[in-house]
């Protein structure tokens, strides 16, 4: 089972262009990696992967609010 990461405070919001928050699952759960690539599994430590990825996601989220462009890369599966 994959870790589920949500930011509870402050609440995530749309940017100044009123765009939906990029790279989130329903209920604004952060999309930190592409599960199909198996970048994270139960043999890996949350502190080595999920925490740094969360920090990086937040960095890109804040920049997205300033610039209107998501620079964090990633896939957008249908």
Could you give the topology of this structure?
Layout: E1 24-25, E2 29-30, H1 50-67
Antiparallel strand pairs: 1-2
Outline of the structure:
The chain is mainly alpha-helical and 78 residues long.
Strand order of the largest sheet: 1-2
> Number of helical segments?
1
Succession of helices and strands: EEH
Number of domains: 1
Mean pLDDT: 93
Radius of gyration: 13 Å
Low-confidence stretches: none
DSSP strand content = 5-15%
Structural class by secondary-structure content: mainly alpha
Terminal CA distance reads 21 Å
Major sheet summary line: 2 strands, antiparallel
Keyphrases for this structure?
single chain, 78 residues, two-stranded antiparallel ribbon, 1 helix, 2 strands
Q: Could you walk me through the main structural features you see in this protein, from its secondary elements to its overall organization?
A:
It is a single chain. The chain contains 1 helix and 2 strands. It is mainly α and 78 residues long. It has a two-stranded antiparallel sheet. The chain is elongated. The mean pLDDT is 93.
